[in-house]
């Protein structure tokens, strides 16, 4: 199977929403309340994607990955929400189960790292649910340094998240 990674635009909003909702249901079953996952709406998420892609913030980027049948994943982010000087943050990274294990997650992380570094970022971070063991293993494998879990408000109540950091973003750039 061949894949292409490209900057997402407003016309990709519905496909991004489909991937987002499907990936959440695949990834977070048993980690988040089933009732929350069942209520997720592709049209609602499509509107959010369209709005954010029409008016992105400074230094924000969304990369999508597709095969011949359509989008299978995406990653997005921008400057760190913690406002740490020089730090970029990947806020979302999702692949459909069928697209995992092909190096696409790594390619999306590296692609965003290149974009962020070109915009002046010197470090990178991403947060993940503490109990999402496969994702945590992926970030460990990429060399991210996990921090202690912290409590965060989330869907269905309080969640526990772990932040992974790359103090030098250049380690992610080929």
TrEMBL record:
Q: Which InterPro entries match?
A: Acyl_CoA_acyltransferase (IPR016181), Bact_Acetyltransf (IPR050832), GNAT_dom (IPR000182)
Keywords, comma-separated and alphabetical: Acyltransferase, Transferase
Which Pfam families has this protein been placed in? Acetyltransf_1
Asked whether the keyword Transferase is assigned, the reply is yes
- Known PROSITE patterns for this protein? GNAT (PS51186)
CDD domains assigned:
NAT_SF (cd04301)
- Report the residue ranges that make up the N-acetyltransferase domain in this protein: 3-169
The protein's name in its UniProt record:
Ribosomal protein S18 acetylase RimI-like enzyme
């Amino acid at each position: 199977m061949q894949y292409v990674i490209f900057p997402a635009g407003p016309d990709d909003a519905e496909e991004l929403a489909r991937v987002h909702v499907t990936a959440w249901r695949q990834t977070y079953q048993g980690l988040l309340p089933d009732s929350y996952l069942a209520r997720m709406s592709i049209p609602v998420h499509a509107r959010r994607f369209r709005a954010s892609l029409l008016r992105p913030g400074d230094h924000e980027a969304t990369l999508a990955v597709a095969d011949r049948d359509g989008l299978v994943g995406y990653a997005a982010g921008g400057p760190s929400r913690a406002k740490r000087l020089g730090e970029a943050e990947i806020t979302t990274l999702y692949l459909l189960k069928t697209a995992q294990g092909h190096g696409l997650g790594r390619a999306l992380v590296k692609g965003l790292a290149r974009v962020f570094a070109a915009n002046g970022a010197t470090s990178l971070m991403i947060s993940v649910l503490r109990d999402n063991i496969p994702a945590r293993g992926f970030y460990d494998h990429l060399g991210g340094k996990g921090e202690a879990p912290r409590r965060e408000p989330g869907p269905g109540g309080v969640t526990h998240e772990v932040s992974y950091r790359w103090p030098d973003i250049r380690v992610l750039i080929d």
